[in-house]
Write a structure and sequence with these properties.
Blueprint (H helix, E strand, L loop, with lengths): L11 H9 L3 E5 L15 E5 L8 H9 L2 E4 L13 H5 L4 H12 L1
Parallel strand pairs: 1-2, 2-3
Length: 106
């Protein structure tokens, strides 16, 4: 496994390359997921939705691009402020790793 973090400070070209080589993308609902347009078909997308309501934009984008989109609704995020995925998953990222492995194998 190699984890690369998209900060949004990369050039558009670097963002495109990052998403193009990804086997899986995990991210909170937001503008950064617009880079899904650079992903290869069948890339796994695990979206952390917002708690402010159901937003289906990235699900529809993923479907149109042939990506495998899932939502981890137990880890709903907020539009503003920081998000602590460790608080959602507990002290271990093991469950997220296990979920990603099972989805990548499917």
């Amino acid at each position: 496994w190699r984890v690369e973090v998209h900060t949004g400070s990369e050039s558009v070209a670097d963002q495109g390359r990052l998403f193009e080589r990804a086997s899986a993308v995990v991210g909170a609902h937001g503008a950064g997921l617009s880079n899904l347009v650079f992903c290869r078909p069948s890339t796994l997308v695990l979206e952390l939705p917002t708690s402010e309501g159901v937003h289906t934009f990235f699900r529809h984008l993923s479907l149109s691009l042939g990506l495998r989109h899932y939502e981890l609704s137990a880890c709903a995020t907020h539009f503003y402020g920081s998000f602590d995925i460790a608080a959602c998953l507990g002290s271990s990222y093991g469950p997220l790793r296990d979920l990603l492995l099972s989805l990548l194998d499917s």
